[in-house]
Amino acid sequence: MTRQELKTMFLNMAPSTVERKEIIVGKCENPHWPGYGDVEIVSDGPDGYSSFKTHQKNPLQYAKDRMKEGYDGLRDLSKYKLIIK
Q1: Host domain of residue 53
Q2: Res 11: pLDDT
Q3: Does the model's pTM come out above 0.85?
Q4: 77 close to 67: Cβ distance less than 8 angstroms
């Protein structure tokens, strides 16, 4: 199979019908950054893939604030699944 055939086959694949909407909160292990952590907002589904990652002082509070209905203004994050690592 040639590279062009593989590329064509990949681009013609049907998009995923399973939706993934998650807010992942992780704690920073660096002792010089107490109370800090990462927050990643991931959306994957038929409309495409989107990911946003940030480093925050109080990551859990930041995630909760973002999940409040209408906070973002662009998308409703209140229905996203919250994952704490």
Answers
A1: 16-84
A2: 83
A3: no
A4: yes
